[in-house]
Design brief:
By secondary structure, this protein is of the alpha+beta class. Among the domains are: 112-315, Orthogonal Bundle (Helix Hairpins); 404-512, Rossmann fold (3-Layer(aba) Sandwich), CATH 3.40.50; 514-586, Rossmann fold (3-Layer(aba) Sandwich). It is built from 11 helices and 12 strands. The protein has a 5-stranded mixed β-sheet with strand order 1-2-3-4-5, with helices on one face. It has a 3-stranded antiparallel β-sheet with strand order 6-7-8. Strands 9-10 form a two-stranded parallel sheet. Strand 2, helix 2 and strand 3 (48-51) form a beta-alpha-beta unit. The longest helix is centred in the middle third of the chain and has 159 residues, at 194-352.
Length: 586
């Protein structure tokens, strides 16, 4: 039947803890009067017991009637409603967070689908551009073939004309020769016509020369046309070969075109499917948004209920506090009255050696109370004047003053020490920043060198996120392997990360060598080439430092001076086997 201590059942600020302890420290809340009576019988007399109905059981055994039962029940009911509402709000918040996470996942899936859809559309556009380019190439090839065929026909016609003209010249030459021969045969029979014959012969000779020149020109032209014909034949052969190649390519282009067309159709189907998925996602998003709105409205309603309940609880707590304060004042007044009564009884006995009953028997009526009160005050004043001075108070004051002066001096010393320490901290931080910058600068230079040696090129550097406060700033490592751009260490591959970390380790060792280093499978992510590169690089540092390496890589084992292997010949019993490489080699 015990509900709990009163101070444990309310909420209050820690700064009022002493006040709450003073007011409620000895108050215990129980369910009913029977429980309170049972506890009092068991000896719980140092605490004040209050039932849920408001009945108060004082430590002395007295009982004070409580308030109406309905009011107390209402208070507990409101508290229970407030707790249930708070739990419901937490539950709704959790549900809202889950729905928000689902909504974010769907948004990410939607963005991914849209990006994939854009990629497919770009691929289809690229295929269409390839198809257009192939079609244009086919048209250009066909035009070029037709042009060459027309050119070949023109050359053939010119060649035929030249052959016809040459044949005509040859026939005229034969005719002239026969005519000259005939004139020579008739020259001795016709003396009269000698001059005419000579003239005719001269004309024929001139004509013959002209014909010879024309024949020679035609021969030259024929030779040129012949060479041109051969060139055209070569060109035709080349064009034929090109045509055959184009036919072969066109077949390949046709198959490629068909493949690209099929691929485009497939992409279009995928796009349709993705659009369907996107529509579904959009519907899901709308549904989740509706659910989110519903949850938000429910949370707002529950929050409003909770705020109302909290306000009522605060008001009730304030009323309880006011009532307790009033009760405490009444109790204090009652205590003062009781103390005054006890003091009066004690004084009555000490001064007059009378008990209360005897004094009541001897009491008389006072005629003038004001005059009597005035006389009493005068007598009290005279008694006070006769009293001794408390000399101990002066001594106590001197001690307290001396203590105050001592503590004040200590406080001043502490404040001066605080200022001195703050100045020292500022100076030390400035010095630390300066030294740290110098050390990082040198390590950065060493890091760039070791990175360049391990990667056979490239560069690397250490960068502070906050250059204004480098002591508290995060450090980023940027690396640029050969053939790549400068990027953060997190964007590198596993092997590149390991090799970059190794370069950083050796850069620090170059700045501040350590006599003893332990490396645990530092090169596990490296390929064989980089393992041997790491091993040869590590060998350079063995002059100043001793390395213990835990490894499974052959390249690292080959450079070791001593190998230690752990084996288990018998179950549960480990055995260490060592091997000195130099002794084995000799």
């Amino acid at each position: 039947g015990i509900v709990g201590k009163a101070k444990e059942l309310i909420n209050f600020d820690k700064k009022f803890e002493n006040i709450v302890d003073y007011l409620l420290g000895n108050i215990v809340i129980v369910r009913d009067s029977s429980t309170a009576a049972r506890l009092l019988k068991k000896g719980c007399k140092g605490s004040r017991l209050i039932t849920l109905d408001g009945d108060v059981f004082n430590p002395g055994g007295t009982i004070t009637g409580g308030s109406a039962k309905g009011r107390s029940a209402g208070l507990l009911s409101r508290k229970r409603i407030f707790e249930e509402t708070s739990k419901e709000i937490l539950k709704k918040d959790k549900l809202l967070n889950e729905e928000t996470m689902n909504l974010e996942k769907i948004f990410k899936l939607k963005i991914s689908s849209e990006n994939e859809l854009k990629d497919k559309e770009k691929e289809i556009n690229e295929i269409e551009r390839k198809i257009e380019k192939l079609s244009a190439n086919l048209e250009i090839s066909a035009t070029k073939i037709q042009t060459l065929k027309d050119k070949q026909a023109t050359i053939n016609n010119e060649f035929k004309e030249i052959q016809t003209e040459a044949s005509n010249i040859h026939e005229r030459r034969i005719s002239i020769a026969e005519k000259v021969k005939e004139m020579q045969e008739n020259s001795f029979n016709q003396e009269k016509t000698i001059e005419e014959s000579e003239k005719a012969e001269k004309e024929l000779s001139n004509e013959l020369d002209v014909l010879k020149e024309s024949l020679n020109a035609n021969k030259v032209k024929l030779a040129i046309m012949s060479e041109k014909g051969k060139s055209i034949e070569s060109e035709i052969m080349r064009v034929d070969l090109s045509i055959r190649n184009m036919d072969a390519n066109s077949q390949g282009y046709a198959s490629q075109l068909k493949e690209l067309t099929d691929k485009a159709e497939q992409y279009e189907k995928e796009i349709v499917g993705k659009k369907g998925i996107l529509d579904g996602l959009a519907s899901a998003i709308k549904q989740l948004e509706k659910t989110n709105e519903t949850c938000s409205m429910a949370i707002e309603e529950n929050s409003a209920i909770a705020r109302g309940a909290q306000e009522q609880l605060e008001k009730i707590d304030e009323d309880i506090l006011n009532e307790k304060e009033k009760y405490h004042k009444v109790e204090m007044a009652d205590t003062r009255n009781q103390m005054g009564y006890d003091h009066f009884i004690k004084q009555l006995w000490e001064v007059y050696q009378l008990s209360y009953i005897e004094a009541m028997e001897k009491r008389t009526e006072i005629a003038n109370r004001n005059q009597m009160a005035k006389r009493i005050n005068e007598l009290k004043s005279e008694i006070e004047l006769l009293g001794e001075i408390n000399k101990a108070a002066i001594k106590e004051y001197d001690e307290v003053l001396h203590r105050f002066e001592f503590l004040s001096k200590q406080k001043c010393d502490l404040m001066e020490a605080k200022d001195t320490l703050e100045d020292l901290i500022v100076k030390l931080e400035d010095k630390m920043v300066k030294i740290f910058k110098e050390e990082i600068k040198e390590i950065n230079s060493n890091f760039d060198k070791t990175f360049n040696q391990l990667f056979n090129g490239g560069r690397a550097e250490i960068i502070f996120e906050d250059t204004d406060d480098i002591l508290n700033s995060h450090i980023d490592i940027y690396a640029e392997p050969p053939g790549k751009k400068l990027q953060n260490l997190n964007l590198l591959s596993g092997g590149e990360k390991s090799l970059t970390a190794i370069a950083m380790l050796f850069a620090i060792l170059m700045k501040k060598p350590s006599p003893f280093c332990v490396l645990d499978e530092i090169e596990a992510a490296l390929d064989d080439v980089n393992v041997y590169k790491f091993a040869s690089f590590l060998k350079k540092f063995t002059g100043n430092s001793q390395f213990i390496i835990i490894t499974h890589r052959k390249g690292t084992m080959e450079i070791a001076d001593v190998l230690y292997g752990v084996t288990m010949e018998e179950k549960g019993i480990s055995k260490i086997v060592s091997l000195k490489i130099k002794d084995k080699a000799s």
